[in-house]
Amino acid sequence: MRLILLNVFILLLIDFYIYYALQKSSIKWVKSKLFKSLWWTYNIALFFGVIASILLNIPLMLRSVILVAFFLTFTSKAVYVLVLLIDEIRRGSVWVRRRVISVIKKPGKEVRQQELDANTISRSQFITRAGIVVASVPFATLSWGIAVGGYDYQVRRQKLYLPNLPKAFHGIKIGQLSDIHSGSFYNKKAVLGGIDMLLAEKPEVVFFTGDLVNNKAEEMRNYQDLFSKVSAPLGVFSTLGNHDYGDYFYGKEDSPKKRKNLQQIKEIHGLMGWELLLNEHRKLQVDNEQIGVLGVENWGTGRFPKYGRIDLAKEGTEDLPVKLLLSHDPSHWRAQILENNRDIDVMFAGHTHGMQFGVRGEHYQWSPAEYVYKEWAGLYQENQQKLYVNVGYGFLGYPGRVGILPEITIFELIAGNDPVEHT
Q1: I want to staple 376 with a disulfide (CB 3.0 to 4.6 A). Which of 210, 312, 352, 406 is the partner?
Q2: pLDDT in tens, 306-348
Q3: Which of 365, 334, 354, 339 is nearest to 394 (CA)?
């Protein structure tokens, strides 16, 4: 409760600060009674809406609208406050100069002081107006990311060269989805459009690498029928992500409700025809030749849960020439797979979302995610071991994407060495 009250105080302080700055500007329309009424009605309504979204079980669609409005509003206000603080610093330096001049009292300084006063007023007005323009940039960008980016599915193609791949698997196509986060969706038609894009690629096998929901199994109620359409001749294999365990809703301590929720999520995988791999493996067979698909529960560094048991998943796979691992968190690759499990040929992961913001081109990519994760998007390789990080199908928190768009990955398995490595 103290934390909530502190946040309330900070938000109100920001609102009063911006309102006061606008009233001191030369912008006429912000001084009208209508602006005053709209400003405080909107901000107070938004404030109570956020509290209701946190404390009450309001409809998911309404909650999404409220949180989106708050996210966009707060981002723009934060930028505007930064501009105003810069002006405060500038005004403070001018004030100090004026005091110094008044103490020195050199001839001609009175005129100079009048010039400083004139410049102070004009510059402050300019900065106040410029701040409005600057603050509108993130608002417009993030609004575009919500309106367009969140469902702008991209098919990314990646060849995987595997020296030990049996010839029967040469050319096999694998589709990967990750981080669906169904509790964030609000457009079923768009979600179905992405599923159709995956199915149009006709992959022989599909991998899903965790985070089916944000917190609760009931989030899949309106989307289970859509994702049930995801099928492939050799099967759909899935694993769990950190959000699937309910830790962020029920807490990290065990409880009957939390156990029931997790069990329901596991059952949903089965109802959709997906084979959930919980620290176990399956053998794929084509023309009497086999490779292994291994799936572990979530294992991540830092605060993320460590339920994964790669040792259990590998039991009985000693004779398989190729092992493909599904593990939600890419940090698992460097922490356990590279050094201690060198027989894992490729690990498929998700989790990072590419922070849903950045730049991603054919030969260059950047996101704030790279300051958190060493491997955060695309293909990585050390020696003969590979990791692919899918930036996710859905979104979490910010209900959209800018630059780092939702991904459907299509892999082609190639028997042999990567020609690029030998040129």
Answers
A1: 352
A2: 999 999 999 999 999 999 999 999 999 999 999 899 999 999 9
A3: 354
- Rounded to whole angstroms, the Cα distance separating 98 from 114 reads 10
| pLDDT at residue 111, rounded to an integer | 46
Query: Is the dihedral angle over the CA atoms 226, 230, 236, 239 positive or is it negative?
Result: negative
Q: Which of 214, 251, 235, 405 is nearest to 326 (CA)?
A: 235
CB 52 within 8 A of CB 62: no
Sheet holding 280-286, edge to edge: 280-286, 289-295, 323-326, 346-349, 385-389, 378-382
CA atoms within 13 A on the CB side of 274: 29
Judge if pTM exceeds 0.85.
no
For 20, how many CA atoms within 13 A lie in the half-sphere containing its CB? Answer: 8
| pLDDT tens-digit map of 162-197 | 999 999 999 999 999 999 999 999 899 999 999 999
Inter-residue long-range contacts of 364-372, CB under 8 Å, 24+ positions, other chains counted = 367/403, 367/404, 369/404
Give the C-alpha separation, 260 to 132, whole Å: 49
Name residues whose C-beta falls within 8 Å of residue 339's C-beta, 6 or more positions apart in sequence: none
